[in-house]
Amino acid sequence: MPLTSVQGAPPMSAALHAVKNTPAPVTTLPIIRQYLPPKGAKESLMGALLRGALIVGLKPFLGPPWNVATQRAALHVGSVVMPQDGRALVVKDRIGALEVERVTAKAVPQPRHAIVYMHGGAFCVGSPRTHRSITTRLAALTGALVLVPHYRRTPEHPFPAQIEDGVAAYKQLLAEGFAPERIGIAGDSAGGNLTYMLSAALRQQGLPQPAVLVMMSPVVSTEFDPNGSAVTRAHRDPMIRPAWAHQVLDWYNAPADHPLGTPKAIDLSEMPPSLIQVGEDEVLYDDSQWIVEAATRAGRHAELEIYLKRWHVFQSHAGLLPSSDQALQRQAEFFKRYWAA
């Protein structure tokens, strides 16, 4: 059960209408829930150990002065010790030149549902391999095919190569006979951004929307608010340094005048039902808050889950940390709620 179920303040537009004595638009307030870590020695002990390992073994090596090869190696080393779910099978494949992993539950040899999973890593690091602790569990929990593109990364391939590769993966699922109402898109961090942007790219290309989106700690800001979480929570975040965020946004190099270049300017009028999960102790906290509020203003259904005392993409510690297992279970339930049978 959530610690609290909070409905946020009315959007600013409603307040302005009230000042002008004109009718305010009908709005639904954002759905925001907070979760404390589950009680128990395993959660508290592993939480402390994992937080310390991130601070010492990963955070210093993500961002300047390190080059991208060093950063990729650091994330890879950190990820290989995260346990995969033995109930899932991973098969490497290709869609043309695009490398992908197909992850399926061993108990469901012919899935009726599918997820395009856009892995995180600040657009420049990470791979399908580094995120198997998440993708194998999503496959096991949902019974779906989880298709994970090894999308082109920066700085070698700047924007919008990553979005284009996500579209290619989605089109492949359609070509294989998966109906849009049985498809979801999910991703973490930069992959959360790509999940959000992929929905917009599909709309712009006249392609059908998936049934559901799930985003973990998505990044949508292209500028840093000096009073926002990117600054105020930097000392609490055990994984992300603001200097890394500045570096990778420069590498990503999304032009503001491109139709997909400014995430906060995207039309959300067709955004599918969306679940956003974020840790309390992370610099990207404000971005998750913004998405749920913007989607709600656009008349779309979005839910935000805030995990207290947890960090950026803590879900990657599933199998070790009970709160991570619970978060992925809630994702699976959200997919099933909106998928067609």
Automatic annotation (TrEMBL):
GO MF entries: triacylglycerol lipase activity
Hydrolase keyword on record: yes
Keyword annotations of the record: Hydrolase
Domain (Alpha/beta hydrolase fold-3): residue spans on this chain: 115-315
Active site: 189
UniProt-listed InterPro entries: AB_hydrolase_3, AB_hydrolase_fold, GDXG_lipolytic_enzyme, Lipase_GDXG_HIS_AS, Lipase_GDXG_put_SER_AS
Keyword Ion transport: no
Family membership: Belongs to the 'GDXG' lipolytic enzyme family.
Protein name: Alpha/beta hydrolase
Organism: Aquabacterium soli
